[in-house]
Design brief:
The structure holds two protein chains of two kinds. Chain A has helices at residues 24-35, 53-69, 86-98, 111-121, 133-137, 196-209, 227-239, 256-262, 272-280, 302-312, 386-392, 431-438, 475-483, 517-527, and strands spanning 39-43, 49-52, 77-81, 101-105, 125-129, 146-150, 176-182, 190-195, 217-220, 243-246, 267-270, 292-295, 316-321, 328-331, 346-347, 351-356, 369-375, 381-382, 393-394, 397-406, 412-417, 422-424, 427-429, 444-454, 458-467, 494-497. Chain A is of the alpha/beta class. Among the domains of chain A are: 29-171, Rossmann fold; 429-527, ANL, C-terminal domain (GMP Synthetase, Chain A, domain 3), CATH 3.30.300. In chain A, the strands form six sheets. In chain A, strands 2-1-10-9-11-12-13-14-15 form a nine-stranded mixed β-sheet. In chain A, strands 16, 17, 19, 20 and 21 form a five-stranded antiparallel β-sheet that branches. In chain A, strands 4-3-5-6 form a four-stranded parallel β-sheet, sandwiched between helices. Chain B is mostly helical. Chain B is built from four helices and no strands. In chain B, helix 1 packs across helix 2 (39-53). The chains are: A alpha/beta, B mainly alpha. The interface between A and B is medium-sized, with 30 and 22 residues.
Amino acid sequence: MEKNTSLAKHQQISKNFKIDYSNIRELLYEKVKARTDEIFLICPGENTTEFTYIQLKSLIKNTYNIFRGLELKNKDRVGLIFYNSPEFLILYFSALCFGLTVVPINPDIASKEMRYIINDSNSKVIFYNNTLESKIKNIKNLDNVKLKKITSINDQEFSLKSENSFEENKISIYDTAVIIYTSGTTGNPKGVILSHLNLLSDSKSISEWFHFDTKTRTLCILPLYHNNGQVTTLLAPLYQGGSTVIVQGKVSLLSFWDLVNRYDVTWTSVMSSILSILLSMPKERKDQTLKAILCGGQILTRAVQKQFEDRFKTPIFEGYGLTETTSFSCINCLPAEKRKIGSIGKVLPANEMSILDENGKDVIENNVGEICIRGYNVTIGYLGLKEKNKNSFRDGWFHSGDFGWKDSNGFFYFQGREDFLIIKGGENIYPAELENVLYQHPDIVECAVIGIPHKLLGEDICAFVKCKIGSEVSETELKEFCKNNIGNFKQPQKIIIINSLNDLDDIPKGPTKKILYRELKKYYMENLSDQ
Amino acid sequence: MPINTKELDVKLEVLLKEVFKIQKINLKGSIEDISEWDSLTHAQLISAIEKEFEIKIRFDDVMIMTSIPIIKKKIMNYL
């Protein structure tokens, strides 16, 4: 690795951790040499597509032609709007190898939200799947952005050979590889800048933690536009020359055990809501290959873990991480007997973790404080958010905003957050995101959004709204309004119009008029939770 | 059990509205444009189709039944 001069304080660690490659291209090309004709990617579907390592490299080179045709240069940013698909994979690896920065965009967010991300990231070209054309056409006011529709990697443009004499662009380990957008407390998403170093260090850590090798085959059902899917089930197996089966998560849960069985899957990574959904289905496990499941992103209850492990006879390794830490920063210990159930595990080799109090001092063992992380897998910061960066990255630590504790054996435990983040089926949603939309409705005077319990998704969304006197707007009309203005997974399950309640006149607020979300949730749980 | 396309449309419309808990459905819609269509409702939808039409859908088909026209085509193949 190059000298540490480009590392921020919160990216440095005192322990020894060696990165073997200087960028994702070098990692991939090394694996192509070692695993040439072995399968790396499998994309099941109507026409199942498989890529060996060498086939992927060849497609990457061909894709460079498309980039050059679009006048893309080293370090330019490109948006990718795709569900998990061969098209995403080819463009993702091609862009990283070419020296571009990938901005993956969730296809389920609204056109307005897409526009924000495209403009904020200053993306030069947006690649999108042809099935999303109507949504893309609705993205207005895109200046100097080229839109490139991709129908299939079987299209002729992916098969045009690239010149062999072409010199690869220089890529530093500190160069930005991806910018992943994550929910923001104020309503607008924040772009988390992740370098090649971030991706390499986290994927190496995870792959070594679980002893991945060339026989490792992961199943990727989590979306590749988020960090967990990208790192845990794509880059971590790549780091050891393994392979991965990539499917679109939305349609794969009923087929989960069949996919594991057919493709001899050895590892996968899921959100706890997926475990609950699999438990609710009458499908049983048939394979003999799955070694374990990695689980993070949502609180995993002991009951779900026990039921799942008892029924499907596979251990679940709970971990913890954020987009800001590339993916996981701590995971429970292998082998399964060494795990501490209920813990989010021990610190990964690429980073350090501490529990700090409000003054930045270490909290003593078994006492609650803020979970803080530093290391090679921690982002340099949020794109263009100076104030937020000052608050979140200080005194040599990334302050996660999550609270937890550490026991005397070095195991960490997650307690919760203070900022009312809603986690619905693994997707993070801040109340402000939906509140900002609701406030645009002419009849709404005031609103507050809370997370409410959902048996399978963990949480769902409930909005309390106060309407103008005399307003006759209905819950259905308000839901329709939301549909046109915010992404699918951020839609409220319930909208409660306060004017129609007998025992609540107003959204509860404190002396400074700050909304008391806890009070509102308490009211919901006591009065409305069975509706 | 033979069924004509009109009967299939009627049955499927009822079923889709019930699973997605919506009052109107575009029979040309897909997973990309029906906001209620997520991983959970997809699983519920496939189970409901299996029950309603007394068929067993293969897992490869489960993964590609991502639009109502494809679902209709697949059901017809099974019947």
